What we know:
It is a single chain. The chain is of the alpha/beta class. It has 10 helices and 9 strands. Helices cover 50% and strands 16% of the residues. Strands 3-2-1-4-6-7-9 form a 7-stranded parallel β-sheet, with helices on both faces. The chain has a two-stranded parallel ribbon with strand order 5-8. Helix 1 (13-24) links the parallel strand 1 (4-8) and strand 2. The longest helix is centred in the middle third of the chain and has 21 residues, at 138-158. The N and C termini lie far apart (53 Å).
Amino acid sequence: MKKIAVISGASSGIGLSTAVLFAENDYTVYSLSRSKPEDNRIKHITTDVSSEESVRSAIEAVVSTEGKIDLLVNNSGYGISGAVELTELSEVKRLFETNFLGTLACIKYVLPHMRAAGSGRIITVSSVAAVLPVPYQSFYSCTKSSINSLMLSLANEVKPFGIKVSVVMPGDVKTGFTTSRKKNNISESAYSKSEERAVSRMEKDEQNGMPPEKVARCIFRAAIKKHPKVLYTVGFVYKLFVVLSKLLPIGLVNKIEGKMYS
């Protein structure tokens, strides 16, 4: 019997590469996204993850058709950039509704079916920014650190039910995520010059980053491994950064990162 994978945000980037990889390895793959993936092997259910009802309906549709869900990959999300002081609270709320609450909703409605089956995998795409918050991308970093905390707690809660939980933290990845980032439209402010330098450096790193297929392969390994790790970092350099962040004083680490984006 084929395994059933549900992947949010699988219409492009990391999500699409992940969906294609699982489809190539004999999974039945469902994309929960607003846009339909351009691959006929991937089944699509139009879903707005920021709407709890939309998520609930999509998960119920998969279970009604397939009878189970073996794997959930949470990948939906977007970024905003700008100074903390100048970012509207409404924009922050919308970001959390998609990146954090959208992830939570998918987990919430998949878990009863996995518990009943006594097995399942939940993998969430986070970011190295969860561990090393990026200047002028503070709220995106916050959503990802919140996801890490959620998943670490969840891993212990669902372990007795045979459900395994992992977080995948990529560094810079070359996808359409860069161009879809929402930016503050404040041309003149006390932060303008430093923000422009930081965001420009960040976008350059992203466009020279790893291909999304590399992240997809990490997700796939976590999904099939008998004893997966809870936290995965993708990319040698980023693994080194994460290790150093644990070994060096946090103030020094933050100072170094500030210089990187100045």
